[in-house]
Structures are given as structure tokens and as C-alpha cells.
Specification:
Layout lengths: L12 H11 L2 E6 L4 H6 L2 E3 L1 H10 L4 E5 L2 H10 L4 E3 L8 H4 L3 H10 L3 E6 L4 H5 L3 E3 L4 H5 L7 E5 L2 H11 L4 E2 L12 H10 L5 E3 L5 H4 L4 E3 L1 H10 L4 E5 L5 H7 L4 E4 L20 H10 L8 H17 L8 E4 L2
Helix pairs in contact: 1-14, 3-4, 4-15
This protein binds 1,3-dihydroxyacetonephosphate and iron/sulfur cluster.
The site of 1,3-dihydroxyacetonephosphate (13P) has 11 residues, from loops.
Length: 329
Amino acid sequence: MTAMPTTLAGLDLRAEIDRLRKEKNAVILAHYYQKPEIQDLADFIGDSLELSRKAAASDADVIAFCGVKFMAETAKILSPQKIVILPDMNAGCSLEDACPPEKFRAFRAAHPDHIALTYINCSTEVKALSDVIVTSSSAETILAQIPREQKIIFGPDRHLGGYLNRKFDRDMLLWPGVCIVHEAFSETELVKLKLQHPGAPVAAHPECPPHIIDHADYVGSTSGILNYAKTMAGDTLIVATEPHIIHQMELALPGKTFIGAPGADGNCNCNICPYMALNTLEKLYLALRDLTPQIEIEEGLRLQAKKSLDNMLEMASGTVGKGDLGVRD
Ligand code: 13P
Ligand code: SF4
């Protein structure tokens, strides 16, 4: 067993990470839900679709993925020749946990006339059992290309699936998973907050339950919400998604005010993603130094999962950076 370096606490971690990034020809990709100190040193920050595309296009030898495991696995599926490291291998996702591959396989077998349109927040095994992957910024564009008469299973996020069903008048069969972070917003507290800030719009991620979406002026992916903040007329925005995205809003729009939507205790701390929060500068430094923990995927499984991801990339083309499921009517 390798002992932890005793000098870790004394290191200039930012300088060390920078040195290692050059030495190993690594690119650091970060999701908007990462801690500000990680966002600040990333080469690229984005939503799930943008990060997938970046991973596929990068010419780096190493991808240091500051996000959660399904995102790092997506990078490895698309770029198998690269070393993909994840600072903490326990950075999972409640949606992935809610959809065990064997149960998903049985669900598919019970509905042989349905195709599986599957949210990217799932395991590689579930991707391999799916027909087309979607992210929150590509779901609308992709669903629009599937004929209305085609029966569809949508998993594992029942809130995103329900939102799409309502908005596009579809009746996709929904897998019963939820994101524990978006599930924790409180409608009562949100209404109180709106009363305190009359006129401030609410931007919500489609992983939110319908009682939160019903209060939203804009519904979209993380990049869509960020774009909405940049184009909205007012100077205050209530943000119903993981609050670390507010860091990019404050950097881009220093004169505006961004308020995280509250949880049941009136405090938005319960909406910090506990999985995303496992990544730290220390763990990123160690991962770059030792090139571990690495994502490994068996080749047959990778090729099977790549089909549904390739379908997504092809069908989603043109959506990068827009990230919009749309402004509500
Ligand atoms: P997007 O960044 O694609 O909107 O997804 C949010 C999310 O669930 C990350 O876990
Ligand atoms: Fe999963 Fe929700 Fe965390 Fe995203 S915010 S990684 S969906 S638990």
C-alpha cells in the first residue's frame, strides 16, 4: 500500500496540478457542480453533453475528469486510448444507483416494442442496454426526431422524463429514479423566496420535480441556465439546481444577484451534490501524480455502450452550448 505523502498539506496544490497537467499532457474537465477551486483551474467547464464532446475531441493523453463516475466512464467509452482519471471513484449518482442493469434488462424485455431512450446519468451497463442516450441539453432535439408512434422507455430520471412527456405530449414509460439533489428543493420555501424577491425569475433544471418546475420561468440544463442568466432582463435570478453553478454566474455577471433555491430547512446546503463534492484539489493532485484511480471498461461492454452514445452525438448535433429545453410558455 502506498503511504499518503506527509507533505501534501504543505504543497502549493494549484501550482503542482498545473505542473502535472503539462508533464502528463492532461486536460482537466469539470462539471458546473464542482467546487469553485476546481472550476477555476479546469481547462474546460461544461454540462454533460459539452463534456462528452470535449472528451471525444481532446488530443490529450490523460483526461482528469472532475465530475461523477458516469461522466468519466462516458469519456473513456468515447476515448478508449486515453487514460481517464476520476479524483474519487466513489463519486456516483443517485440516478445511476436507482437503475441496476439487471432490473433494467428485465424491464426492457417486458416491453419488446419499446425503444430505450436513456438519460446519460446511468451506468455503462445501462448505456449498453439502451438505444439512444440523451442529456438534459439534447433531450428535446433527440425526442423530436423519434416518430410519435414509436413506443419509448425513458429512464432513469422520472422527473426529466415526466417533463418531456408533459411538454411534448408524449407518453414515454418512466423508470422511477430521481436525483436526490433536485428532489430536495422545497416548494413552500421557494414560494416564500419568490415573495421576498418579487419579479425575480426562477430557472430550474428538469431533474426538479413538477411542483418546482411549475414555478420556473426557464427550464434547462446547467449550460442552458447559465445562458439564461446571461440573457435575462432583470438583475436577480433564483436558481433551482445544484448551487455550485452560481460560481460561473457570479464570474460572468458580477453586477447581478443569484440566489440558490432552498431546501426544506430554508437553507440550500442540502442541495449540494454529495457525490460531486467528493472531488477535492488534494485528490485531483494525487490522481494526476499517480494516474489513479483510472476508469477501466471491458472492450465488449464499451463497444456496446458506445452505440447509444454515438446515436446521441449524431442526433444532438447543433445543440452544443445552447443547452435549452426551452423557455416555458
Ligand atoms: P447537465 O449538466 O447536463 O445539465 O446535467 C446535470 C447533472 O445531472 C449532472 O449530474
Ligand atoms: Fe446525480 Fe443529482 Fe448529483 Fe447530478 S446532481 S450527479 S443527477 S445526484
